[in-house]
Design goal:
about 80 residues, alpha+beta, Alpha-Beta Plaits, 5-stranded antiparallel β-sheet
């Protein structure tokens, strides 16, 4: 079971681009609708999910904090950090 991951609620994304600017390794802006895409993620029922390792958690919390509409969530040991 994946314990450390990014969860992205893409439907609620406003396309500000903060995540892609801070972390182009994990984020890119869609040319189709202007919203952000979590690179190499898997679609769940309502969100996109990507596994990360423990050393990536702090940086990804910073990226999530930059989102003005709070649609990026970081989980460590399956517990929500933000």
């Amino acid at each position: 079971m994946v314990k450390n991951y990014i969860l992205h609620n893409r439907e609620e994304c406003i396309g500000c681009g903060a995540c892609a600017s801070l972390d182009p390794k994990n984020w890119k802006m869609s040319s189709e609708d202007g919203k952000s895409d979590l690179i190499d993620s898997e679609k769940t029922e309502e969100n996109y999910k990507k596994e990360i390792n423990e050393t990536e958690i702090d940086f990804n919390v910073e990226v999530a904090e930059s989102c003005p509409v709070n649609v990026i969530h970081i989980y460590k040991d399956s517990e929500k950090q933000i």
